[in-house]
Amino acid sequence: MINISINVKQLTRLREAVNGARKVMEVEIAAAINATAKKTRLEIGKTVRETIAIKKKESEQPLKISTKASKGSLSSTVRLQKTPRLPLKSFSARQDKKGVSYKISKQGGRKRLNGAFEWVAIGHFFIRAGTARLPIHKLDGVSAWGAFIKNDFTPEQMKATEKELAKQIERRINLNVLRANGLVPK
User: Fold this and answer.
1) 136 in Cβ contact with 127 (< 8 Å)
2) What is the DSSP string of 43-100?
């Protein structure tokens, strides 16, 4: 279990800045938490894309902010939903005389499956189970969820989230100081 904590000194400074700007502290903390959740969602997608050759849309589709922070509830949840594996054609799969080549990992080169073929009418890749023509098996790549879980990005993502929350609270402090001094409209 990983705990995310807020610096007490930052909270004291935020309370002073909020009182000067005549704002509600819970609303300011909720805004910082929501901004952190959005940034975390984008960072998880970016981390997955750095590991596997996947498009941005496909990496961020399973990421959802299921609960947002509000004045009454100061917590937010970013979920990475379990999704089915993506078809092999999402990983630049190509058929040649020997079989099919594809690239899933960004660290390694292209891989090859000898004897595999593309069923053009369907747009998917298959391989025969034995020497007979049937049965055939559909070939799939990985999912964003699978890449995140297999590589265990959770601890480093939690550290990045803590840093982002501290940064967002500091932003809210600076904004409220400017509001209190009349430099930014309330």
Assistant:
1) yes
2) HHHHHHHHHB---HHHHHTTEEEEE---SS----EEEE---PPPBGGGGT-EE-SSEE
User: pTM for the full model?
Assistant: 0.81
Which tens digits make up the pLDDT trace of 92-120? Answer: 999 999 999 999 999 889 999 999 999 98
**Which residue, 35, 71, 21, 33, is CA-closest to 179?**
21
Let me know the angle formed at the C-alpha of 170 by 168 and 174, rounded to the nearest 5 degrees. Answer: 115
Strand 94-95 and strand 99-102: pairing?
Answer: antiparallel
CA–CA gap between residue 25 and residue 161 (Å, rounded): 21
